[in-house]
Amino acid sequence: MEQAQLSTKNFLVVGRAGMDFYPQPPGTKTEDATEFFAALGGSSANICVALVKQGCNASLVTRVSDDAIGRFCLKQLDNYGVARDFVTTVGGEARNSLAVSESRLQEHETVIYRNGAADFEMTGDDFNNIDFANYSALITTGTVLAAEPSRSAAFEAFASAKAAGLPLIFDVDYRPYSWGSAEEAATTYSKAGEMCDVIIGNDVEFGFMAGHYDRGLEKARALAKSTASIVVYKMGEKGAVTITPDEEFATGIYPVTALKPVGAGDSFMGGFIASLANGYGLKEAVLRGSASASIVVTKVGCAPAMPTADELDTFLQAHAGPANA
Fold first, then answer.
1. From CA 145, how far away is CA 151, in angstroms rounded?
2. What was the pLDDT predicted at 94?
3. What's the rounded Cα separation, in Å, for the pair 218 and 25?
4. Res 211: pLDDT
5. Is residue 13 included in any domain, yes or no?
6. Contact indicator for 172, 142 with CB cutoff of 8 Å
7. 3-state secondary structure of 274
8. Region 198-219: what's the mean pLDDT?
9. Distance (Å, rounded) from C-alpha 22 to C-alpha 265?
10. Which structural domain range is residue 241 located in?
11. Is the dihedral of CA 287, 288, 293, 295 positive or negative?
């Protein structure tokens, strides 16, 4: 993948949108709460918001339920400036995902409802009217691959995007509760990984793809040597290792006082890709993605907490460099 391909800053993002509930005030356990803060959620919707807030355009491809929750998601996408030309409303028993997530670190609990998920209803028809050549890249997360018919639809979209010359950007985002079996997930992720140009995941996810936790970094390196242009192997507090066919380097994290543990991965993806699109070098883009992740965990919500480019620059000015760099 040539970085210049991203410079048009117009991204097609495939995956879910949902509603997040946060018990109020921050620190409250869900079972003790009488008030909740509602926000747009869902990994792909969050990535869209992160991209838009940092000066890019993002179009979401998904399905939403024909009910109040689906309409909430549509309204939130509009509020954030995410294009929804390819968001389809589906009736019947399909429902948008709902996450109830506590803004607390100690004994944190997130409960996610994903039965009959509307986004899993996507088919190849959802991509028929898309001119892939108009976009800088296709971005998706592993969640979209967890069930049919959305899995087959995503692979059809991968093929169409590659035929149009688009880079494929993939966040592994392995969530066991969405999959029928670990074996099915491993096989599907391996297929997706071999097609994608940029792959982002954490050490557990790459270890899962490799068949053993201790071989995760080996798997990331193998993907960079064979099919991927950029692989980012994230290690939580230990930072990340970024691997390309030509180089490998480690980066640290920006320490903050976190309010919650969720949203960091989506924010990293948005900050990293937006920074590449805005012309930053690879290492600086990784660091900006890391800073974006640090910002999000200090605030309530995921989509609302995604930093703007100005907020990210202000944060970086106040932090001379990441820990463990």
1. 4
2. 95
3. 43
4. 86
5. yes
6. yes
7. helix
8. 92
9. 18
10. 3-126+133-318
11. positive
Query: Is 324's pLDDT higher than 70?
Result: no
Structure tokens at 217: 């970094």
User: 60 in helix, strand or coil?
Assistant: strand
In this structure, are strands 168-171 and 198-202 parallel, antiparallel, or unpaired? parallel
The CATH number that applies at residue 299 is 3.40.1190.20
Only one residue has tokens 């838009």, namely 52
Cα 184 to Cα 161: distance, rounded to the nearest angstrom: 24
φ, ψ for residue 229, nearest 5 deg: -85, -35
Q: Read off the pLDDT band of 321 (50, 70, 90).
A: confident
**What's the CA gap between 256 and 55, in Å, rounded?**
25
Q: How far is 22 from 140, CA to CA, in rounded Å? A: 25
**Cα–Cα distance between 290 and 253 in angstroms, integer?**
6
Please give the Cα distance from 309 to 9 (Å, whole number): 14
- What is the total count of domains within the chain? 1
The verdict on residue 324 lying in a domain is no
- Model confidence over 20-38: pLDDT tens digits? 999 999 999 999 999 999 9
User: Mind listing the pLDDT tens digit for each residue in 246-301?
Assistant: 999 999 999 999 999 999 999 999 999 999 999 999 999 999 999 999 999 999 99
217-222: average pLDDT: 96
